[in-house]
Amino acid sequence: MEVLYGIYKARGFTIEELEAKRKEKALLRGNFDNRVFLKFAENEYKTNDETGSTFSEMVNTHKM
Fold this sequence. Notes:
Structural class: mainly alpha
Oligomer: single chain
Radius of gyration: 17 Å
Strand content: under 5%
Largest sheet: none
Number of helices: 3
Mean pLDDT: 75
Number of strands: 0
Helix content: 40-55%
């Protein structure tokens, strides 16, 4: 936490702004409260069978 606080202070933000951003991210993308973790991911260069797009292309298009 000290590292995060230090980075935020160095960039001119407050701890309150850090906490507000954390809450916003948790609402939009979830958090670790349910202890669900990614254990496996496909190779990023493998294509999606339906679209033919690679994972990297999908991420860049949808800004996950």
